[in-house]
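Re: [ENG-882] Designed sequences occasionally contain unexpected residues at chain ends

Forwarding the minimal case from QA. Structure tokens:
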């Protein structure tokens, strides 16, 4: 029985998908939990869907869902959360700038936490990308007080019951640790490896990395005030 599902959002990543298949197949052989893979095709306009279907056809542990049209990264992650049936789920970008093998590092800590997120050590991105990410993370920490240094790291493990209770909105993928804290969950960050992108193109520009997150912080504060959280003591 599968224990862990890796969610892989995909948007126009035809040049990366063969490598994704190879890397995830290699990870399945060393995974510390019995693992399956869920592609979420976010309305790709290239050949990504046909490649995903071929991958899933020849690999029993690979499945997919596909959007009618592009709805954005937060929607793709939310759809993955909604469709996962295993007790644990993970998330990794299809550009493979993080290593699937590092999921095992995060899984070592999941028994004592509800979310374990990677923090990218020695980032291999451009100066502009690194600087804008640091500024955006500083702004977000000031709003959320989540203590996380790198919520944009595309390598996370979450207990599925907590992930399914997150009320997602556009941009909320940056606030997953804060949303677990609202549920009184425990979070921790673990250093993971980071690599340069070798194929495809980045989907986020300066607006997405800096100004967009600032606007999302105000949406988060509104949602935090409205968030409903309860625990049942008994029932008969």
């Amino acid at each position: 029985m599968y224990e862990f599902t890796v969610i892989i959002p995909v948007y126009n990543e035809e040049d990366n998908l063969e490598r994704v298949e190879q890397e995830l197949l290699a990870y399945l052989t060393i995974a510390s939990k019995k693992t399956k893979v869920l592609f979420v095709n976010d309305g790709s306009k290239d050949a990504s869907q046909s490649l995903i279907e071929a991958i899933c056809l020849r690999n029993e542990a690979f499945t997919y869902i596909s959007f009618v049209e592009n709805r954005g990264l937060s929607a793709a992650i939310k759809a993955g959360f909604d469709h996962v049936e295993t007790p644990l789920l993970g998330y990794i970008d299809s550009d493979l700038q993080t290593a699937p093998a590092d999921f095992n590092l995060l899984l070592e800590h999941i028994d004592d936490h509800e979310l374990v997120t990677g923090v990218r050590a020695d980032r291999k991105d451009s100066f502009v990308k690194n600087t804008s990410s640091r500024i955006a993370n500083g702004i977000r920490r000031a709003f959320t007080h989540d203590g996380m240094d790198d919520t944009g790291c595309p390598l996370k493990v979450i207990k599925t019951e907590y992930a399914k209770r997150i009320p997602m909105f556009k941009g909320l993928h940056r606030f997953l640790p804060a949303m677990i804290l609202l549920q009184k969950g425990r979070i921790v960050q673990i250093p993971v490896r980071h690599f340069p992108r070798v194929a495809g193109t980045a989907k986020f520009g300066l607006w997405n990395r800096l100004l967009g997150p600032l606007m999302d912080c105000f949406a988060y504060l509104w949602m935090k005030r409205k968030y409903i959280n309860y625990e049942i003591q008994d029932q008969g």
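QA comment: On inspection the terminal residues look reasonable. The domain at 4-226 is CATH 3.90.550.10 (Spore Coat Polysaccharide Biosynthesis Protein SpsA; Chain A). Proposing we downgrade this to a documentation issue.
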